[in-house]
Amino acid sequence: MDYVGRVPAPPLDRFVDDVYCLTGVPRHRAMTVPPMPSAHLFVNLGGPVRLWDSDPSVPPAVLTDGWFMGVWTRRFRFEYPTPVRLVGVHFKPWGISPFTDVPASELRDRWVPVDDVWRRAVDRIRNQVGELGSGPAALRVLEDELRSRLADAPARGLDLVRHTGGQLAACHGAVPVGALTEAAGVSVNHLAAQFKSHVGVTPKRVARIYRFARLILSVDAPRPVDWPAFAHAVGYFDQAHLANEFKDFTGLTPTEYLALRQRFPAEQGFPPIPAE
Fold it and tell me: Rounded distance, CA 87 to CA 159, Å?
């Protein structure tokens, strides 16, 4: 598949990592995606997308038009249509907050239709993007939509969350929450409440997700991995801590994940994980 993305101009770049187009035939029909430090907007121009939550109590979903996803704290399975044609937004963990009145907690670990968040918007966006194809003009449609919805003034606590969240991102989660609160001059409970309001999860959980993202994207599959040393380098207490995190977030052991990376050496960034 072809991925074309870019970082939007200020002030959107404070909340958005990139806007992008994804087109083509997928190499892998389905994959399981672990928690990553981002929230999402997808506008689908192709066939139905099927999603399964790793929580067996949650029914699977079939989505056709567009959907939001807040920060996920557990893995989910994503089945691509063939071919793929969609445009999307990778928000920073706190990034959806200034664009919608829906509480972040209601988007956490959920896929929510666009029209449930932005009333009667998805058909208009799809029509505009569909007329423009998949190039830079299509990305401008998303950027213009985001600019039109960006709140004039930040909601209470958002600047605090953006600042401390940026620190977590810069150090890949390897900073104690107590150090963040001390530097910001607020209590642990206050910071946690603001993160729950704007991200949907606590700063401790965000730190955990950033740390795991660094771990899973840093494995050098062609070379032997010294797991104890690697665990320490990316901020885990020991190899057992790393192994538990792998199993919890991916359903795989570190050895199984390494074998997967070796099986798909051509994949860049996040590799496919077999469907559960």
Answer: 28
Sheet holding 111-113, edge to edge: 2-6, 16-24, 84-91, 39-44, 66-69, 111-113
Give the integer Cα–Cα distance in Å for 31 and 53.
12
* Separation of alpha carbons 272 and 274, rounded Å: 6
- Distance CA(134)–CA(119), nearest Å, equals 24
Asked if 242 and 254 count as a contact pair (C-beta separation under 8 A), the reply is yes
Contact of 139 with 21, CB cutoff 8 Å = yes
At CA 210, angle to CA 227 and CA 57, rounded to 5? 95
Q: How many CA atoms lie within 13 A of 129 on its CB side?
A: 30
E strands, the chain, are 2-6, 16-24, 30-33, 39-44, 49-53, 61-63, 66-69, 76-79, 84-91, 111-113
Helix axes 188-198, 177-184, angle to 10 degrees: 100
Query: Which residues pair with residue 77 across a beta bridge?
Result: 32, 52
CA-nearest of 76, 24, 19 to 45 is 24
CA 21 to chain centre: 16
CA distance 179 to 214: 21
The residue ranges of the chain whose pLDDT is under 70 are 133-134, 264-276
The answer for residues whose C-beta is within 8 angstroms of residue 40's C-beta and 6 or more apart is 68, 69, 88, 89, 90, 91
Neighbours of 275 (CB within 10 A): 13
pLDDT value for 261: 76
> Which residues are CB-neighbours of 37 under 8 A, at least 6 positions away?
71, 92, 93, 169, 206, 209, 210, 213
Task: List the one residue out of 47, 3, 21, 2 whose CA is nearest residue 142.
Answer: 21
